[in-house]
Design goal:
By secondary structure, this protein is of the alpha/beta class. About 40% of the residues lie in helices and about 20% in strands. It has a 7-stranded mixed sheet with strand order 16-17-18-15-14-20-21, sandwiched between helices. A 6-stranded mixed sheet has the order 11-10-9-12-13-23, with helices on both faces. The longest helix has 22 residues. It binds NADPH dihydro-nicotinamide-adenine-dinucleotide phosphate.
Length: about 500
């Protein structure tokens, strides 16, 4: 693994073996020389050492971004030129798919087939927003003469962007692409656990010639660097993806200068299966909904709602299939589900499993680490399924963010909808049925921002992503995501340039 590691990381910018941050177009160490060791979640081995930024580093990056926005060329660069650079960035990502996906698997643990997908998705996100940059943005209104009114969109300014560890490169793309396309400048903080692919992305930004200070990558912990970004009076907007608790603290920190805010938070999303659904398809997507990325997905189908009449047959088949899922190292081509991100997160998921048992739910399968080296050294938990749950249980209400599925049963459509909406979250939800009218009735009643009929999880750069209730504020992706990185200005033009006469001009008598 060491050789693979060294080879994989050779394109990152380092000093004395420590990966550097990208601030104001330069590669810099932490101001106090701080270093963090990154661990491969599959085997506990140290894979890299990276700068551990400080509050001062965050402030320096914010100052560089401020200067780049206030005095720099980016916002005045024609949209076509910004688009060309973003298209080049997308192509460069594609050209480095093998390197980026292996780096992501090394740092995050998820199987190569997932990271390859993520890398392609990230490239396409830059491509989508590169295309959008040159498309019509404004509106005109037919207002009473002699005025003409138009509305234009302008960049917000300095955007602080804080992203999690579950999709490191993809989340960076979701944040940077719309912001840069719209003419903003960025200070992005990846998760302290998974900064490698974002640092490699910064080398592309540097080589492609984005003006200095337009993209800044600061490393460090959330409570230090993330909080400094959220609080700063020089940051005009903060965009965050992560846990609801952290989202709340970021929102509070952002009140100082009333910065614009968008939050993509957690979920406890219902996947509803009616008796008339295609059985094998529903089983397949129930597995995919919760066990893709080992359940570390904000929109995971973590609650499976089954109609009474199919409950037992469905659970039997689901448990059989869950037991067959190949859990292992993300580099092993046989692996279907990788590890959790860290030992601390594994312990948190295990404590939820213990709580579920104590609350009286029935553990149908999983609930433990796999035997041998895998479980001892890596952060693995077997695919886990609970039945016999009650709506008020913590495992039903709270986001576990791991490979833990809780099953609820319902007797009719009304009860399905009631249970589906019965959490503080409202991110996603799905319904499986062959009755198209019923599918739409149920979707219409779901209090969630992302929904699926007879599928689970597909996400498109073109469509808005975000949640109702405590799952967030605002939307990412699509034109909605672009709008969140713009201010809206109305321009009123007087087409008859003469005094209005509202106040009498005593001299002229008019
Ligand atoms: P966090 O929400 O804490 O982390 C997400 C990002 O926020 C990271 O970059 C983190 O930095 C940063 N951050 C942490 N604290 C602050 C702060 N006070 N101010 C500003 N930024 C901050 O997620 P965790 O990794 O702690 O996971 C906790 C739970 O959150 C999970 O169990 C899961 O339920 C949920 N989660 C949801 C995600 C989603 O996509 N909706 C993604 C990740 C987690 P750093 O990690 O470097 O300290």
């Amino acid at each position: 693994m060491l050789a693979v590691t060294e080879d994989l990381l050779k394109n990152l910018k380092t000093k004395d073996g420590v990966c550097l941050m990208y601030v104001d177009g330069s590669w810099v160490p932490a101001s106090d020389g701080g270093v963090r060791e990154l661990v491969n979640p599959s085997d506990g081995q140290i894979v890299a050492r990276v700068a551990e930024g400080t509050r001062q580093d965050a402030q320096r990056a914010i100052a560089a971004a401020r200067a780049a926005f206030d005095n720099g060329p980016w916002r005045d660069t024609p949209a076509l030129e910004r688009a060309k650079l973003l298209f080049k960035l997308a192509d460069t990502i594609d050209d480095h798919t093998a390197e980026l996906s292996a780096m992501e698997t090394l740092n995050n643990g998820k199987p190569l087939r997932e990271t390859e997908y993520d890398v392609a998705d990230a490239a396409n996100c830059f491509r989508y927003y590169a295309g959008l940059a040159t498309k019509p943005q404004g509106q005109t209104f037919d207002v009473p003469a002699p005025s003409q009114t138009m509305v234009v969109r302008e960049p917000i300014g300095v955007c602080g962007q804080i992203i999690p560890w579950n999709y490191p490169l993809l989340m960076a793309a979701w944040k940077l692409a719309p912001a840069l396309a719209a003419g903003n400048v960025c200070v992005l903080k990846p998760s302290e656990l998974t900064p490698l692919t974002v640092l490699r992305l910064a080398t592309f930004v540097d080589e492609l010639g984005f003006p200095k200070g337009v993209v800044n990558i600061v490393l460090g912990s959330g409570p230090v660097v993330g909080a400094a970004i959220a609080e700063s009076a020089d940051v005009d907007k903060v965009a965050f993806t992560g846990g609801t608790k952290t989202g709340r603290s970021i929102m509070q920190a952002a009140t100082g200068n009333l910065k614009k805010i968008s939050l993509e938070l957690g979920g406890k999303s219902p996947n509803i299966v009616f008796a008339d659904a295609d059985f094998d398809t529903a089983v397949d997507y129930a597995l995919f909904g919760i066990f893709a990325n080992a359940g570390q997905v904000c929109s995971a189908g973590s609650r499976l709602l089954l109609e009474d009449s199919i409950h037992d047959k469905f659970v039997k088949r689901l448990v059989e299939r869950a037991r067959e899922i190949a859990v292992g190292d993300g580099f092993d081509p046989k692996t279907e589900m990788g590890p959790l991100i860290s030992r601390a997160h594994t312990e948190k998921v295990e404590s939820y499993i213990k709580t579920g048992v104590e609350e009286g739910a029935k553990l149908e399968t999983g609930g433990k680490r796999p035997p041998g080296e895998l479980g001892a050294k890596g952060n693995f938990i077997e695919p886990t399924i609970f039945t016999n749950t009650k709506p008020q249980m913590r495992i039903v209400q709270e986001e576990i963010f791991g490979p833990v599925l809780v099953i609820q049963r319902f007797k009719d459509e009304a009860e399905a909808v009631k249970l589906a909406n019965d959490t503080v979250y409202g991110l996603a939800g799905a319904v499986f049925t062959n009755d198209i009218a019923k599918a739409h009735r149920v979707i219409k009643k779901l209090r969630a921002g992302i929904t699926w009929i007879n599928t689970y999880h597909p996400t498109y750069n073109e469509a808005p992503w975000g949640g109702y209730k405590q799952s967030g504020i605002g939307r990412e992706l699509g034109t909605y995501g672009y709008d969140q990185y713009t201010e809206v200005k109305q321009i009123n033009v007087n087409l008859a340039v003469e005094p209005s006469g509202w106040f009498k001009d005593r001299e002229s008598g008019k």
